[in-house]
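Reader question, answered in our methods column.
A reader sent in the components of a multi-part assembly and asked whether the whole thing could be modeled at once rather than chain by chain. We filled in our standard form and ran it. Here is what they sent:
COMPLEX SIZE: two components
ENTRIES:
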Amino acid sequence: MDESIIFIEFLRNRIDDFAYIFLTSLGFLSAYYWLYSKLEGKIKSIFLRRNSVGLILLAVYSVYYFMLLYGKIYYQLEGNADKIAPYLHAYFSMAISGLVCFNLYYLFTFQLANSGTRWAQTVKNSIFFLMVILAMIGSNWPLYGSSLLHTIPFYPIVAFMVVMVDAGCRYVIRLQSLKKKAKELETLKLKDQLMQAQLDALHAKINPHFLYNSLNSIASLALTDGYKTRKMAISLSKFFRYSINRENSNLTMVKEEVEMAETYLEIERVRFEERLNYEIHIEPGLEEFKIPRFILQPLVENAVKHGLKGDLQELFISIHARYEGKKLSLSVQDNGLPFAENFEPGYGLKSVYDKLDLLFPGKYEVALYNNPEKQVRIIIERQQ
Amino acid sequence: MNSEFTAIIVDDERPARLMLRSLLERYQTTICLLGEAQNGKEAIEMIEGKKPDIVFLDIQMPDMNGFEMLSRLTWHPMVIFVTAYEQYALNAFRENSIDYLLKPVEEDRFDQSIQKLLRMGTINKDVDVAAMLKMFNQLQPKKEITALPVKVGQKILLIRFSEITYFESRDGYVSLFTSTGKEYVSDLNLQELVEKLPDNFLRVQKSFIVNKDSIKEIQRYFNNRLILILDDRNNSRITTGTSYILQIRNSLGL
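And here is the structure of the entire assembly that came back:
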């Protein structure tokens, strides 16, 4: 034989060795990591919990298989290929193929499979078939070399195996997720009950200080101004009737909410007289927009409470309800001191957030502004 | 003026002043009303100027509370506190055997205080104003910080702590991430945040603070580190720093 041809033959065989070793080790590595990520925390085995032990095991297995395979390749090179039972090897390589492609498949597609979009599914499936073909070529390379056509009868068997194992895994995962879903449903029910309880608690909390001060005003005005006293008593009862919320409704209309804010301001105006003034504007068409109860009044109360601090002699509050696109913008603006840099929200504002969180999760925004005017603004999407 | 005592009324609400005035009218011969002040600042001026024997004092006023006002006085009158406060503040009065009136003011109760004054010639004379002020401030319901203000253009948004999953410091900026995957930039640096944030926030690495409640899964990683998988939209993975491992283990009970 021509020397150059022998050399090329030799070279081809080295490349074969390399390809096999590379693909097999890749398979084992992925197998190991797959097992590690799957079973970590589930099986309290020292082999899986300890990285170093796992890696040593992997190394021992790899060396064992490399030696085994290299021995076979050596046989082949010596021209003793007939002595190896070809079928035995074929089944062995099938098992390796299955392992390799299955694990590579999970290693590369686990993230994608979880994202669930159609695009991701397509990519995932393509990777799957690519892996099957790659693994089969890899594991059969040393026996058949370039005449891979001989291995064709095994392809469907390997593919079937892979699909079966895959289906099995999917079934287990599905079972787990079904259980999880059932649990979630249960917590959802509990959450619903909790939400109602939370809302009830939020509604019931009315500042007793406000009540005593108002009643004190009534007691003193009764001596001098019967008409004003009557007005105050009526406003107060209106306000409390609204806050007690007999109908147990969590939502109300903008016009009602604004009316209650106005009632509150009227009560405070009896106490603070000409030092407190306000204006209210509702854009036509917004009157019946549904919003949570008692989200406007706490903002107005804050404006009154903090606005009269300092040297301010006359507090002016304006309440606006207007459209912002299709959303509702509800703002309370006043001429008091601006919000501090490290502003810390009190109970009132927190309760507004809590109510919106429970009733309009993700569909609202509460923002404070100092420019151009000091104001608190709530933006709410229309309820479907 | 041949009245035995002089008095002024301090209250920010006119109706409340009206109430006290009408109650005082019945004691015209013994108590002479010198004037009425409607906030702390006015009260200080009036008390220093007119040097009354008695002050009817509302505790809660917009510019300063009643004890603060008293602590700034050089002239120390007798004080009858008038308050709409609830239980917690009243206990402080009782423990210091201080005479006070509750709003709405009852006539009988008012008479009792005045009778006591007329009988003893003095009332609430030895109130330790500094101690009361301190106690009063302590008794105020502690304001629990629940959110972090974040500036977005002109807006100041309040991001509730429960929404925040983690903070990351990158190129000198601190970003905070919410469970819905939103990112905001905070004005504070990580060290300032550690001091400000409640206990459930944990420094896990030089450039990360994590909300303990948002940790979904913990995986071991080599070199004594952990991988924290957070319960947010991106299932964020944060690798902890080697030097923080002790604090993390203690705090997470590992």
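What stands out: The longest helix of chain B spans residues 107-120. The domain at 5-139 of chain B is CATH 3.40.50.2300 (Rossmann fold).
Send us your own complexes using the same form.
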